[in-house]
Amino acid sequence: MARNKRTEIELTAYDDLFETDESRAEANLSKIREIPISEIDEFPDHPFKVLMNEDMEQLVESVSQSGVMTPATVRQKEDGRYELISGHRRKKACELAGLETLKCEVKELTHDEAIIVMVESNLQRSVILPSEKAFAYKMRLEAMNRQAGRPPKDNLTPVVSDLETPRTNEKLGKEVGESREQIRRFIRLTELVPEILQMVDERQIAFRPAVEISYLSEEQQYTLLEAMGYNDATPSLAQAIKMKKFMQEDKLTDEVIQSIMQEDKPNQKEKPAFKDERITKLIPKSIPRGQETDFVVKALEFYNRHLQRNKAHER
Length: 315
Prior knowledge:
Layout: H1 14-17, H2 21-28, E1 32-36, E2 40-41, H3 54-66, E3 72-76, E4 82-86, H4 88-96, E5 101-106, H5 111-122, H6 130-147, H7 168-176, H8 180-188, H9 194-201, H10 207-213, H11 218-231, H12 237-248, H13 254-261, H14 277-280, H15 292-314
Parallel strand pairs: 2-4, 3-5
Antiparallel strand pairs: 1-5, 3-4
Helix pairs in contact: 3-4, 5-6, 6-8, 7-8, 10-12, 11-13, 12-13
């Protein structure tokens, strides 16, 4: 009979019954905890530099006095260790301050999700180098493509603007406030050899010429680097475009690179023939720019004849 059947009633726990949506949301948030710095690994291929400058000195002083105010973000790896997603400067400051732990927020993220969060958080910095943007955009775009289920390409960089719809580079551009074409240009910088990329960071080479130079092979870029040093000049946009065109036609030899770098640039101030002040201060101001060498040669010839006459008198 029905009354002999045992009725099982599942009661709601007292805490669950009176728990609010807000408190349940708080319970699901990542926990904030102090994690030993020795258990935190750097993010693989982290594109942002931790500079030892005045800002870092101030951060170290702040951490020493008040600790870390804003937690770093980490994710736990399969081996039980932690991977640092954001907070690399805070972690370094703690190390310099002699602290053994770092206040962290632990989030459950996949590798690709972690890349996106890492790039997004670091792009909030006030100063970002072109090289940092270049590798950060490339890492994030590749992660977004994997999330969208697109097969990896052998060489993503040159065809970044040819990805299938919906275009992830357009989406990335909207998220970071850059045009799709500018995203492509930044990612091209990852093809530069380290020495030239550093010159871009140091503003010795302008951004747009650097993008064109990135199409040159590694060997051609090192030849260009030597030509820049020899001529004490960096390529203009027109010169960089010309080298790229010669490269595409398989005509960019060492001699062509040197010849292009020796070209006069429009509106370029002619450089002084001599850098040594012991020479330049002896050249009259009335000597036209570009004729300093002729003046010095004539002066040396005159002096040489003077020495020869003195020797003739001594005989």
